[in-house]
Design brief:
The complex is a heterotrimer of chains A (304), B (473) and C (273).
Chain A: H1 2-32, H2 39-60, H3 65-92, H4 102-122, E1 127-128, E2 136-142, E3 145-150, H5 151-173, H6 175-185, H7 187-192, H8 197-223, E4 225-226, H9 230-245, H10 250-270, H11 276-290
Antiparallel strand pairs in A: 1-4, 2-3
Chain B: H1 2-26, E1 29-33, E2 40-44, H2 46-67, H3 71-86, H4 94-125, H5 127-150, H6 159-184, H7 192-210, H8 214-236, H9 241-261, H10 263-266, H11 296-300, H12 306-332, H13 335-345, H14 347-352, H15 357-383, H16 393-406, H17 411-427, H18 435-449
Antiparallel strand pairs in B: 1-2
Chain C: E1 10-19, E2 22-32, E3 37-41, H1 48-55, E4 63-69, E5 74-76, H2 82-89, E6 91-93, H3 106-113, H4 115-121, H5 126-130, H6 133-152, H7 168-180, E7 186-190, H8 198-213, E8 218-222, H9 226-232, E9 235-240, E10 243-248, H10 250-255, H11 257-264, H12 267-272
Parallel strand pairs in C: 3-8, 3-9, 6-7, 7-8
Antiparallel strand pairs in C: 1-2, 1-4, 4-5, 9-10
Helix pairs in contact in C: 3-7, 8-9
The chains are: A mainly alpha (304), B mainly alpha (473), C alpha/beta (273).
Chain lengths: 304, 473, 273
């Protein structure tokens, strides 16, 4: 029981991170129907900017952890958002109206290029860092096993919940969100009604990238080490989360993230940690085969 | 004029600003390990960043100038950048010299492009151009083939070139195989390397554990890979294009992870070693033959030379690649090949015509997988050692890049792209580190500027009115 | 009038199609005879294309039976997979928004339509790969069939051009020829005259009549262009809001008050105009 509870806490933490990345996939898919294969790389870049940010905070002598986290959070969100914007502007926008697989191929190219760019300028070695919060408390003890919650885990879940609430509000209640949903429904009609479609799509990428950057920062703090390759696996898992939850659906992305976190952690805890990535890929394949519209998504009707 | 120039300057300034924002942390602060303590320090690279940003400013300015019809100023700017890049000026790193110079080259090409394009269109449209183009299309393949066959006996046929030749041909074969799936049938397969792995492990296991020879295993490996193609393809081939791509990526990774973790069968990350090479009529390529065998040099009565093995491997892969090509060309002219292309164009219309989409896709998937299986068992026989590291996602991406760059569906395009993408970086080893970066950028640039690839021409699978020599119909 | 001519080619009974809460087709029954052109008309959104999509296997009907009389057996279309309806029951169709293979040539489009026949002749590619005579002969016959159709639709000189380069009217004709190259029993045409000029419409009329007379194929036609419908149809089925409101020969249907109401609105609305 205690072991189970501990794993549950770990799974929720991990699931929150996946959920944040998954939102980016889901929003972009919802609005332009493409899989933004490079999204995992934006997450990785967000983690690197956070790492550098924490080091700068150290150099500047900012000792207070909350201040440092807040500063780095804003910095990572802002500068990763530029990546999101620039990727859309240069690699995807010119392809609207090209053949249907063109954006995906371009996205794979962006992904490879970004990975190698970071490897070239930052080196291939794993980078330790982000250890600004330590400690925690024992929730309860049972069977001679302490169930422990760290402050960091609380921060991760808190940041995720706050961001997701803010985000849901943004989509549901603001003019920006309304434009976004309008483009999702019918891009041509939205354009005719005076919605600036290009800007709305850009903003979608910017917001997705900002959330991925937060996930990157939390990932760095949670694992304490990153390298240029983390975007690939995390990206695939987050994409799986988005598909599992129902691609295009915001709550779906969060739900999917949680489920993937649960599956991964419990698989590793009770079966084998070697095959935990196989489990994630297998779920991706199974969901796409048997329920491509996901848990909360709407099925597509083929128009002939 | 002044207003236009100022808007161009503003635009270039904005681009440079974005570039600076992109680079300020990732490029400006290089994290490096410090001392023996576990920890990181900074190696500041603001000078590098500044040079890069300035280059981007002028590059963008030049492109705007060219787009506004001011091609000469743009080309002068480009020439100046090339000069700066090639100058002995002390830039912070060698890479930046390249960066500045390549930016200049880009501008010059952009400036010359419209003229070159016009000239080429005019030449292709003229009577002799048409004849030459037809002859070129007809004979260039044969010329390439003749050159490839003769290569080992020319003065260029040294160890390094032959190695490179074998490598390029392997990718040509893989590209041709994937071209069936992606180029003809329009199914984006991101896990192609899995079938390559199946072929490689089939040969490695059957030869080291059951003592079977290369020529016996070759068809088995192809069949195994095709079987995997059918098994994996059957449940997923009704998915939409981009979902299919992701599922195949998932399958590719699953197969690699299983190979990595199934110690009893595959020996895990340590891989399988001492795989026997291919034999020539039962004779082995070695200095001394194992008991009961004969070496090739003994059989032919020639002195032993290490390069003989390499030449033999070269001809095997050339032969395998040609089979792939011949097979594909034939299939394209058969009903199934036409159905592949029709499926790529419009699946709904295919269904309305009574074509079974799943079966048709499955044949494309299986045939493509089979050729990857052949290539895989060749790879194992050549390397004599294989491990899961050779079958990562990036390999699939490279093969895909070859197909995409070449022009989806074009056979000669694949050859060109393989030479460009595999040959050039291997030849200029210094570029090795930047190779994958260039790869990724190339994929984006092709999609943006030339989505149909280098060779965009499609030859119909049959004609009602045969072409008369001398142009026209 | 034509119901007495023996067994119908297709028998649609109680066809109902529901999408979530929307009842797109509501208990529609009608028959179409071989050697006849049967038109389905009705205002936009009446459910005409949905009926087609059920017949050609793109949708599974919620309720209903669709029986196609083949040479020696009946086919229950609602139980067959999409491609089987083309392959075995031999129902061919065209689409409202033309769906050719734009990158392939005109001739190739017509060859793809003969896929199943040629696939069989090529021994599922084995004979074809070996270049056996048996396959080469079948391919030559296929080309001849295609040539015949290209002459009938006046596209013989464009045979080697990519289909996507043809003008709009030619693409419409080519799509019909492509459907005919499957050698169907029933040809379903979804608004073949849409976007055609009067001259092209008249040409289309001649083509459809010749398909009925020369090829003896039953035609099911969705059309808004009344010059086409009234001139060439033998039998007309009128749908409105998913229900069948009238049926009969062109002259009868034209006079039917329910049809006039459906097209012109109810009386008091008509006064407004």
């Amino acid at each position: 029981m205690a072991y189970f509870s501990q794993q549950l806490i770990n799974a929720i933490t991990l699931g929150a991170i996946y959920g944040l990345i998954a939102v980016g996939y889901t929003m972009v898919y919802g609005i332009i129907g493409m899989i933004n294969f490079a999204h995992g790389e934006v997450f990785m870049i967000g983690a690197f900017i956070s790492l550098i940010g924490f080091m700068i905070c150290g150099l500047l002598g900012i000792g207070s952890a909350p201040v440092a986290i807040l500063l780095v959070l804003l910095m990572a969100m802002a500068f990763s958002a530029v990546y999101g914007w620039a990727i859309e502007r240069t690699a995807y926008r010119p392809l609207r109206g090209s053949f249907r697989l063109a954006p995906l191929i371009s996205a794979i190219g962006v992904s490879i290029a970004l990975q190698n760019y970071v490897q070239l300028v930052q080196g291939a070695r794993p980078k330790p860092g982000g250890d600004v919060v330590s400690g925690g408390f024992n929730l309860f003890s049972a069977d001679g096993f302490d169930v422990r919650v760290t402050w960091l885990q609380i921060i991760i879940v808190l940041v995720t919940v706050v961001l997701m609430m803010g985000f849901t509000w943004l989509i549901a209640r603001t003019p920006l969100g309304r434009r976004q949903r309008a483009c999702e429904q019918d891009m041509k009609m939205a354009a005719l009604l005076g919605v600036n479609v290009d800007r709305t799509i850009s903003l979608t990428f910017v917001l997705g990238a900002a959330l991925a950057a937060v996930a990157g920062m939390l990932f760095l703090m949670y694992y304490g080490v990153i390298d240029f390759f983390i975007g690939f696996l995390a990206g695939i898992k987050a994409f799986t989360a988005a598909v599992l939850g129902g691609i295009g659906s915001l709550p779906g992305a969060m739900l999917g993230g949680l489920l993937i976190g649960l599956i991964e952690v419990f698989w590793a805890a009770y079966f084998s940690s070697e095959y935990k990535d196989v489990a994630a890929f297998a779920i991706l394949v199974l969901v796409l085969i048997f329920r491509p519209s996901g848990l909360l998504g709407k099925p597509e009707i083929e128009k002939v | 004029m002044g207003a236009r120039l100022s808007s161009m300057l503003k635009d270039a300034g904005l681009t440079a600003f974005v570039a600076a924002a992109l680079g300020i942390f990732i490029v400006g602060f290089r994290t490096v390990d410090v001392g023996s303590r576990k920890g990181l320090g900074f190696d500041y690279q603001f000078a590098d960043l500044a040079v890069a940003v300035v280059t981007i400013f002028f590059g963008r300015l030049g492109l705007s100038l060219a787009a506004a019809g001011l091609r000469w100023p743009s080309m002068v700017l480009g020439a100046a950048m090339i000069a700066a890049g090639a100058s002995p000026l002390e830039l912070p790193s060698g890479f930046l010299h390249w960066f500045v110079a390549l930016g200049g080259v880009l501008l010059v090409i952009r400036g010359v492009w419209p003229w070159a394009n016009d000239a080429m269109t005019a030449a292709a449209g003229s009577r002799s151009g048409v004849v030459l183009g037809r002859a070129g299309a007809k004979w260039s393949g044969w010329l390439l083939l003749a050159a490839a066959v003769a290569m080992p006996f020319t003065p260029f046929g040294d160890q390094k070139t032959m190695d490179l030749g074998v490598l390029i041909l392997t990718y040509v074969m893989l590209g041709w195989g994937l071209n069936i799936v992606v180029g003809l049938a329009g199914l984006l397969d991101l896990g192609y390397v899995a079938f390559y792995a199946v072929g490689a492990y089939s040969y490695a296991l059957l030869s080291t554990q059951h003592g079977l020879g290369f020529w016996v295993v070759l068809p088995i490996a192809g069949m195994m890979a095709a079987l995997f193609g059918v098994l994996l393809g059957f449940p997923v081939l009704r998915l939409r294009g981009d979902y299919l791509a992701i599922v195949t990526l998932g399958f590719g990774e699953i197969i690699r992870l299983v190979i990595l973790n199934w110690f009893d069968l595959t020996n895990g990350p340590a891989g399988i070693g001492s795989i026997p090479g291919p034999t020539l009529f039962g004779a082995v390529f070695a200095e001394t033959a194992p008991a009961g065998k004969q070496t090739v040099s003994q059989m032919l009565g020639i002195p032993f030379d290490g390069i003989h093995r390499l030449i033999f491997l070269y001809y095997i892969i050339l032969f395998l690649a040609l089979i792939t090509n011949l097979f594909t060309q034939r299939m394209r002219r058969l009903p199934v090949g036409r159905a592949w292309e029709a499926l790529r164009e419009d699946e709904t219309a295919c269904r309305a015509l009574g074509i079974n989409p799943t079966n048709t896709k499955l044949t494309a998937f299986a045939v493509g997988a089979m050729f990857a299986g052949f290539a895989g068992s060749f790879f194992a026989a050549k390397q004599r050692f294989i491990s899961p590291e050779s079958f990562v996602f990036i390999e699939s991406a490279i093969i895909l890049a070859i197909v995409v760059l070449g022009g989806m569906g074009s056979q000669i395009g694949v050859v060109l792209a393989a030479v460009l993408l595999i040959g050039l970086p291997e030849w200029f080893r210094d570029l090795g580190n930047y190779r994958m970066l260039a790869f990724g950028l190339a994929m984006v640039l092709i999609m943006v500027f030339r989505p149909r690839g280098l060779v965009a021409h499609r030859e119909p699978s049959l004609r009602l009115h045969p072409i008369k020599p001398g142009g026209g119909r | 009038m034509s119901a007495s001519q023996g067994p119908p080619l297709i028998d649609v009974e109680h066809l109902t199609m529901r999408f979530g809460g929307l009842l797109a087709v509501d208990d529609v029954s009608f028959v179409a005879q071989p050697h006849e052109i049967t038109a389905i008309i009705g205002p936009n959104g009446a459910g005409k294309t949905t009926v087609f999509n059920c017949i050609t296997g793109f949708y599974k009907p919620t309720i209903g039976r669709l029986t196609l009389r083949g040479g020696d057996r009946d086919y229950l279309l609602e139980r067959m997979l999409g491609h089987e309806i083309g392959q075995r029951a031999k129902v061919a169709r065209t689409f409202q928004n033309i769906r050719l293979f734009p990158g392939m040539t005109v001739l190739e489009n017509l060859m793809v339509a003969q896929h199943n026949k040629l696939m069989h002749a090529s021994g599922w590619s084995v004979f074809g790969l070996l270049g056996l005579r048996r396959y080469r002969k079948a391919e030559e016959e296929g080309v001849e069939l295609a040539r015949g159709w290209l002459e009938r639709i006046a596209l013989i000189d464009d045979a080697d051009r990519p289909a996507g380069e043809l003008p709009y009217g030619a693409q419409r004709r080519l799509e019909i020829a492509r459907a005919m190259c499957t050698e169907p029993r029933l040809l379903c045409l979804d608004e073949p005259a849409a976007g055609l000029n009067p001259h092209e419409s008249a040409e289309l009329n001649r083509l459809l009549v010749s398909i009925r007379e020369r090829d003896g194929v039953g035609v099911l036609l969705i059309e808004h262009d009344m010059s086409v419908v009234m001139n060439i149809s033998d039998h007309i089925v009128v749908l409105d809001y998913g229900r069948k409101i009238a049926e009969g020969a062109p002259a009868e249907v034209q006079r039917d008050p329910a049809v006039i109401r459906a097209y012109l609105g109810t009386d008091d609305e008509a006064i407004d105009g």
